[in-house]
From TrEMBL:
Coiled-coil region list: none
Family annotation (Pfam families): AMPK1_CBM
Keyword Isomerase: no
Record organism: Platanthera zijinensis
GO MF term list: carbohydrate phosphatase activity; phosphoprotein phosphatase activity
Name of the molecule in the record: PDZ domain-containing protein
């Protein structure tokens, strides 16, 4: 047998060549992938999993990989530079990793993929005897199908049907050792072969039994506890394809459309419109051909509405959520069955549906949130929905500031005071300047006071000892008598088309939003404002009028 290079594609590996090819679609890495270059010896032990992946099993204590603090146990090896340093080879099975470790060279470049969820390292400790468990008491695996051989054992010629017998699964490819597992025989020691371990075999450049291998620079007990804490977390796995859930008869919510086949699937479900919050950069990052998807939607009479909202940007979601709900309402009134989507399906899309139920259908926010999250696994930004709710109500109230509080404001005086003096907060919200609030000394020159206020504009000052003073580090305004006061605008007013300037926080004062049950007047104002935004959407162009 001879080593046969069965890799499908070779990529330039030198630093200059990699930079030159970084714009090539063939070499472009996913967001979950990274490239690292290590000096030899690498100090990595690789393993082959039952899923057919070659992954990092353990790191040598004090080795180059551990010192680099980049590679983690569980990372999948995707590509490796060849011995000449002129290209990258795709890693298809464990024999490819073995060949990489045997190659000569001062350094080694690798492309690895970080798993979407934490790797269960504790299983590696439990299965430290896996080579013996896997093969103990087994009879040879006989076959006349040479295609189940690992790449380093496949003949360089075309004849691949010679018979052979094999004892160790490391010499099989994925198809071969899955055939081995499918026999379902018991190994005689009480272990069921297909259930005793997740590892088929391992390899490393180190053969000495005295080498100390570790699964990371942390105690195993702490890692297991961290895994338990992360069970409720959501991890987006793009390789699973488009994921979706039915919320109502007319509304579906889910992750991004990846291909024309996804569009066909939506058409078969009766979807007639797509409300998409992905940006062009997200399409590019995930390798999505948006033009092909749009053409497929057009061919299947599916209306595609794109309204990009930046991922994990609470302020942008807050500002754009009213218009998003307006788009959804317009589509529903045109009798569409709508697929509401963002990249992961975890945040923007479900937030839009929850806001629609809360604002338009008059469902309590807690009930709408429970309803949607119960049908679809997601983690929408609830505080952004609350912020946008008060922005809509403020728009309808048109400057009125009487009513129950909507926000918590943390006022801060940072200029200190003399020994024995106290600092008070006074303003238009403290009984019309007549009821000062004593501030609490936090540290050094810092004094703070948390006050619950309704959205609106307020003027205030600080009383330091006998003097009324304003803070020069906070926004100020001069009144009609020429007196300078600090001023704060709590909340904001919703708008159809928020300007870029509005997407940035203007006041350094820390403000927290309050989520509470709405009054009858607030519910009326909310429904009125949400529909007013929807009426500003052109029904033909689905854009601001």
């Amino acid at each position: 047998m001879s080593w046969r290079d069965c890799r499908q594609r070779t990529f330039p590996a030198t630093a200059a060549a990699v930079r030159e090819a970084s714009d090539s679609p063939d070499f472009r890495m996913n967001l979950s992938e990274y490239m690292v270059t290590l000096e030899r010896p690498l100090g990595i032990r690789f393993a082959l999993s039952l899923e057919g992946k070659v992954f990092v099993h353990s790191l040598k204590k004090g080795g180059n990989a551990e010192r680099a603090k980049t590679i983690m146990v569980g990372d999948t090896l995707k590509k490796a530079s060849d011995a000449s340093g002129g290209g990258f080879n795709v890693i298809q099975d464990l024999s490819d990793a073995e060949q990489m470790l045997k190659d000569d060279g001062v350094s080694q470049s690798m492309v690895l993929e970080r798993p979407f969820s934490p790797y269960p390292i504790q299983q590696l400790h439990l299965n430290s005897d896996y080579p013996n468990l896997f093969n103990r008491g087994k009879v040879p695996f006989a076959t006349w199908n040479g295609t189940v051989l690992a790449s380093n054992l496949q003949a360089s010629g075309r004849q691949i049907n010679s018979g052979f017998a094999i004892f160790c699964p490391k010499f099989l490819n994925h198809q071969g050792w899955m055939l081995l597992l499918s026999q379902g025989r018991n190994d005689g020691s009480g272990y069921e072969v297909k259930n005793n371990t997740e590892i088929v075999s391992i390899c490393s450049e180190e053969n000495s039994g005295d080498i100390g291998w570790c699964h990371g620079s942390f105690p195993l007990e702490e890692y297991v506890k961290a895994l338990e804490r992360s069970k409720g977390e959501l991890y987006y796995n793009h390789s699973l394809g488009m994921q979706y859930s039915k919320i109502t008869e007319q509304i579906y919510v889910g992750s991004c459309i990846q291909s024309e086949s996804d569009v066909q699937k939506l058409s078969n479900m009766g979807i007639t419109a797509v409300l998409n919050f992905q940006s062009k950069s997200e399409h590019s990052n995930w390798g999505i051909d948006s033009q092909a998807i749009n053409e497929s939607c057009c061919n299947l009479n599916i209306l595609m509405v794109n309204y990009p909202i930046r991922v994990v940007d609470s302020l942008e979601l807050r500002k754009k959520l009213p218009f998003s709900v307006g788009l959804l309402l317009r589509l529903l009134r045109k009798s569409h069955r709508i697929f509401v989507t963002c990249t992961t399906g975890f945040d923007t899309a479900p937030a839009c549906v929850i806001a629609y139920l809360h604002w338009i259908q008059d469902t309590a926010l807690s009930a709408a949130h429970t309803f949607v999250t119960g049908l679809h696994s997601c983690r929408p930004d609830r505080s952004a929905i609350v912020w946008a709710t008060w922005d809509l109500i403020a728009m309808a109230e048109n400057g009125k500031s009487d009513g129950s509080p909507t926000h918590v404001v943390n006022f801060m005086w940072s200029n200190g005071c003399r020994e024995g003096e106290e600092v008070f907060l006074v303003g238009s919200f403290t009984g019309n300047w007549k009821e000062p609030i004593k501030m609490v000394h936090k540290r050094g020159p810092i004094y703070e006071a948390k006050v619950r206020l309704r959205h609106g504009k307020y003027k205030y000052k600080f009383i330091v000892g006998p003097q009324w003073r304003h803070s020069t580090s906070l926004p100020t305004e001069r009144d009609e008598r020429g007196i300078v006061n600090n001023v704060i605008r709590i909340g904001d007013v919703a708008s159809v088309r928020p300007s870029p300037r509005e997407l940035h926080i203007k006041d350094p004062t820390v403000v927290m939003v309050l989520e509470r049950q709405l009054t009858e007047d607030e519910r009326f104002f909310l429904a009125f404002a949400a529909r007013r935004i929807a009426l500003a959407v052109c029904p033909l162009k689905l854009a601001p009028k």
